[in-house]
Each structure stands twice: as C-alpha cells, then as structure tokens.
Automatic annotation (TrEMBL):
Keywords: Oxidoreductase, Peroxidase
Protein's organism: Falsiruegeria litorea
Keyword Oxidoreductase in record: yes
Keyword Protease belongs to the record: no
Carboxymuconolactone decarboxylase-like domain mapped to chain residues: 51-97
The name this protein goes by in its record: Peroxidase-related enzyme
Amino acid sequence: MTENKEPTALDLPMVDPLPAETQKYFDICVEKLGMVPNVLQANAFDIDKLNAFTAMYNDLMLAPSGLSKLEREMIAVVVSAINKCFYCLVAHGAAVRGLSGDPVLGEMLVMNYRVAPLDARQRAMLDFAAKMTTESATIEEEHRQALRDVGFSDRDIWDIANVAGFYNMSNRVASATAMVPNAEYHSQYR
C-alpha cells in the first residue's frame, strides 16, 4: 500500500510551529498511541477548528457517560460502516478490537453488525444508531422506548444520538477530503 504523506487530498498544511498547547497534545498522542492521528493533523491547519473538534470528540468519546468507551466506539464503527468511511472504519475498528480484546468483533461490526454476538442492550443501541444514520427523520418515541426497555436512560439516549451524529458528520468530512487513516491502525489488536 502506498503511504500518503498528507492526511487529506487538500493542500492545508498544519500551522508551523504549532502552539505550545497543541504540540503538548500531539506529544501525548504519540506517547499513548504511538502516532498523531491523521484526523488531528488534518484539522491542525486552523487551531480553533482543531480545538473545537478535539473538545467535541473528548466530550463524546472520553467523558463520563452511561455508555462504555467500547459502546461508543461500536457506534462509531457501525455509523462509519453504513457511510463507508474508510478513515473511521480503520481507526475505530482498531479501537473496538483493542477495547474488546476481540478482533473478530471488530471485523463483524465493520462488515455487518447484525452478525455479531451482541447482547440485547448493544443490539438496540446499534439499531438506533443505524436508523439515525439512514433515516433519522423516521425516529419516533417507540424507538427511544426500545432503548429504555433494555436499560438505557434518557441521558444515555442523548449520548447515543450525539455519538452517532458526530460520526455521521465526521464521516462526511473524512470522505469528502479523502482523509487517510494512519498506517499503524491497520495492524493494531489483530
């Protein structure tokens, strides 16, 4: 596979030099992940946009929630599979493999979450995220109630909707700009 030098097809170089706080954040990424994810590098042409993106990501994916980190990554993968977003499937597929310790689960979610051995809670959550991705205008109270029936609170439903919404937006930006995943993701947790 040919390695791309730029994170997207757009000529938007990162700010150089990076502000101290941004450099510190990137250094933490290298320390924890072994790389700076290309999605961050892609946004680093405008530090305000990068900060907005990372604030939203960190709130949705890392902040306290009734959803586990794995469940949030599962939503990211299912939404990205429906949208056929190469970047997010590779990056978040690796996260599912890592968090679950199950490379097969990661592959199932990438291909077709309906074949995965999910519990009722996970299945309802992913069905809701899928419906939101393909036909959000048709969501009604019965769909929210189905989530409540398997133990999700209204706050959890808010989080499911926001994570799915974030990845629907991110998928479209990544696809439109031909964002490429970091090569390291492909072999992680296999």
